[in-house]
Design brief:
heterodimer; A: mainly alpha; three-stranded antiparallel beta sheet; B: 8 strands; binds iron/sulfur cluster
Chain lengths: 326, 425
């Protein structure tokens, strides 16, 4: 019975599962507000509260608010809130690990839809060279540093209020998310101070770039996303593991060929058991595209929940007996 | 006027064909007769080799035949461009002898036989164009020699390191060039549909091979290793649709056999993983000795068999360029050919096969003169020792004379595996 269930899952059509999960969660998180649904303010994905109908609040904005309190407050009992926020974030995150990105984040989903549009038009995606990849991949940590340090400096009185949620001012999700409910008001540069002007200009530029970038490059924004960096720091606390059994891997590179995030280790590293990398969105496309039994698997509480199999591979790649046309 | 009814003078071509037919039929007959429990659906393959190598029957009529010197030329692309891939690696001693006059004495017999075959120009299905990937030195140079015999030979650049990103890019470009050359030759453009169909077709053939291997993983093995070599070698030149049908019939029969618990070897016959220089019809000398010495080959790591089928192409977006890149990655990245600088992947592969197929030992054959396999020998032996897997290294060539000495060594090794097995129990 369990064997049959396993086989059913491993043979599953990941594309479909992902498409519908993403569609449903997109509707839920982006329009949940209309139905008074709320998942709180420590959500581990870009469910942006600048969209008034969001069903949750992206943790990054809460984090910036909480850290921006005067320093004395942060290090007193009153900072329990910060702690609770963090614990809630970790608790949410622990359930899905980075699969939040591959399956739940509306902003990630939006990029996948833009990709689907490009694909429809028969235009090929582009990729970064290895060098570009290594450099660009660091940017998200710079953003994360801004998120953590700017509010602290504000708390210390070293920066003005104009630096208030500085990252959000640059974040393309702030501008784009409200559009889902017909609110285009974020598409503007705020001239109230030079700093704000610069930050919001970056935001508008970034938002414009988002559409172009996502059209040519799969998951364009996720490379730069500080949420992804924050995830990675807590990945060890998750009940989810992403495992590779190197001795079963032939290094054929199939997994790398389908990876939206161009993660090279997924194919080339045959030593690490834990194959989750900081850019990974745990979309599991690689598992679906790996032709070796159990070389890659997605584990919940160390139990294989989705494994690469030869049979599943053949099903998904449309490998079938050729129809006669001798 | 003339009355030469009774004797026809045998031309050198005829003589060569007669010698090759003798080599071929001798092997086919021993395979057919020597082993117990014949498999009915193997008849197709015995018959196929007889038709092609004894009766010189052409299989592909007026289809364009695209010769390939190694496995790294993607059949997916050839089929998509309406050609038939013919792998030119050759296993005939007769051809080896002809080639010996053209190449250094110590060259690899496989390369000598391939060159010898071209020198005589004696083909049942003559390739219209030949693509030669720049793999090992000898093969690379062989391409140039063959060209002198009046064949159209096109080199396909193949990198000799595969870890670096640069080599990936390099081979991707190389495959695109190959595609455009073949496409020009054929006067046909590669379409998304054709390429996708042929990926799926080859993938299907591969999946049948994978099914076959699952039977070899179980304790009761319904098919001999030598039969499997025949099957995989047939893929070099057979009509793919016929091969697929024959394979399906065979798998059905194997299913029945495994239900009836027909084991083609003895109860304690050691299980062998075969690696090294590729056994190519009719040079099955070593596999034959192994299986006649009461062992059974359950898996192999060679480019004439497992390596041809194991790795599959995965594509994300199914546009022509996307497919081409995936194809090129598969042919480069997964390849465990010894011509690469490092052989970690090959070693990991052998160890994994030994575990997966519950093998008792590994037999590593290198052709005398195949430098790359000879050079890798030491590192593989060391790694096997570390992993606690017994291994025998043997050198051989295509000549029928060494038989006695080789079988003594193989038998001794197999006896030691049996003792090990008994002691374990
Ligand atoms: S990395 Fe992408 S999917 Fe994940 S939170 Fe950021 S935008 Fe969303
Ligand atoms: S603007 Fe960006 S970082 Fe700020 S809350 Fe919205 S999604 Fe999160
Ligand atoms: S697809 Fe599987 S076998 Fe191929 S490189 Fe990736 S993990 Fe290894
Ligand atoms: S490594 Fe696998 S799960 Fe992670 S982003 Fe790439 S394809 Fe998705
Ligand atoms: S071992 Fe490598 S070079 Fe030699 S025949 Fe096989 S694929 Fe070609």
């Amino acid at each position: 019975m369990i064997e049959r269930l396993k086989r059913f899952i491993n043979n599953g059509d990941l594309r479909k599962v992902r498409f519908y999960t993403q569609l449903i969660t997109f509707l839920l998180f982006v329009y949940g507000g209309y139905f008074a649904i709320s998942f709180g303010s420590s959500f581990p994905i870009f469910v942006c509260p600048f969209n008034s109908e969001s069903a949750a609040t992206c943790y990054l904005i809460s984090l910036q608010h909480q850290l921006a309190r005067p320093t004395e407050v942060i290090f007193s009992m009153a900072s329990l809130g910060v702690l609770i926020g963090l614990v809630t974030f970790i608790a949410w995150f622990a359930v899905l690990n980075k699969a939040w990105c591959g399956y739940m984040c509306p902003f990630g989903t939006l990029q996948d839809w833009i990709t689907a549009l490009r694909k429809r038009m028969g235009i090929r995606f582009s990729t970064y060279t290895q060098n570009e990849f290594e450099n660009l991949s660091k940017i998200k940590y710079i953003f994360l540093a801004i998120i953590l340090l700017v509010p602290l400096f504000m708390g210390l009185g070293m920066l003005d209020r104009e630096w208030f949620h500085a990252f959000c001012q640059m974040c393309p999700a702030r501008i784009i998310s409200p559009m889902f409910v017909g609110d285009f008001s974020q598409w503007m540069i705020d001239f109230s101070s030079v700093t704000i002007m610069i930050l919001t200009s970056i935001g508008v530029a970034f938002a414009g770039l988002f559409f172009i970038g996502s059209f040519v490059k799969k998951r364009f924004f996720c490379f730069f996303c500080p949420m992804s960096a924050l995830h990675y720091i807590f990945a060890k606390f998750s009940i989810i593991r992403f495992t590779k059994e190197g001795d079963k891997c032939t290094r054929c590179g199939d997994c790398y060929a389908v990876c939206d995030m161009q993660i090279k280790d997924i194919a080339d590293d045959v030593i690490s058991k834990d194959i989750l990398r900081d850019d990974c969105i745990l979309c599991l496309k690689c598992v679906a595209a790996c032709p070796e039994d159990d070389a890659l698997h997605f584990d919940i509480f160390n139990v294989k929940a989705f494994s690469s199999t030869k049979e599943g591979f053949a099903k998904r790649m449309g490998i079938e007996k050729p129809r006669d046309k001798k | 006027m003339s009355t030469n009814i009774h004797h026809k003078i045998e031309s050198p071509k005829d003589r060569q064909n007669r010698h090759k037919a003798m080599e071929a039929i001798k092997l086919i007959n021993t395979i057919k007769e020597d082993f117990k429990f014949p498999i009915k659906s193997m008849e197709y393959f015995y018959d196929l080799f007889e038709r092609v190598y004894c009766k010189n029957e052409p299989l592909h009529g007026d289809k364009v035949k695209v010769g390939t010197m190694c496995i790294q030329i993607p059949s997916e692309i050839i089929y998509a461009l309406d050609g038939v891939p013919i792998r030119l690696c050759n296993g005939f001693y007769t051809d080896d002898e002809i080639g010996s006059d053209l190449l250094p004495q110590k060259a690899c017999p496989l390369v000598k036989a391939t060159v010898g075959h071209f020198a005589s120009g004696n083909f049942s299905d003559k390739p219209d164009i030949v693509f030669s990937p720049t793999t090992c030195d000898q093969k690379t140079k062989a391409g140039a020699i063959i060209e002198k015999f009046g064949h159209e030979v096109i080199d396909v650049d193949f990198p000799r390191t595969k870890e670096s990103e640069a080599s990936r890019e390099f081979f991707r470009k190389s495959i695109r060039e190959f595609t455009s050359k073949l496409s020009k030759f054929q006067g046909k453009k590669l379409s998304r549909k054709n390429l996708k169909d042929s990926i799926s077709k080859i993938g299907y053939a591969q999946s049948l091979y994978h099914k076959l291997t699952t039977y070899r993983q179980s304790d009761i093995v319904p098919i001999l290793g030598i039969d499997v070599f025949l099957i995989t070698n047939a893929f070099f030149f057979d009509k793919i649709d016929n091969w697929i049908d024959a394979m399906e019939a065979l798998l059905e029969e194997l299913e029945v056999r495994s239900k009836e618990k027909i084991h083609v070897a003895g109860k304690i016959s050691p299980r062998i993983v075969y690696t090294g220089s590729p056994p190519i019809f009719p040079n099955y000398k070593i596999p034959q000795i192994i299986e006649q010495s009461d062992a059974i080959i359950v898996a192999d790591e060679t480019c004439s068999s497992n390596r041809m089928f194991n790795d599959m192409v995965a594509v994300d977006e199914w546009l022509v360029n996307d497919m081409l890149d995936s194809i090129s990655d598969k042919y480069l990245k997964a390849c465990t050919c010894p011509i690469f600088t490092k052989n970690d992947d090959r070693i990991r592969r052998i160890i994994h096969l030994a575990k997966q197929y519950k093998a008792d030992g590994v037999i590593y054959q290198a052709f005398a003169g195949c430098t790359v396999y000879e050079m890798e020998q030491r590192s593989v032996l060391e790694a096997m020792e570390k992993a606690g897997i017994p291994i025998l290294y043997i050198e051989s060539d295509y000549s029928p004379s060494q038989h006695g000495q080789l079988s003594t060594r193989v038998e001794a090794f197999i006896e030691s595996l049996k003792t090990r097995r008994r002691n374990k129990k």
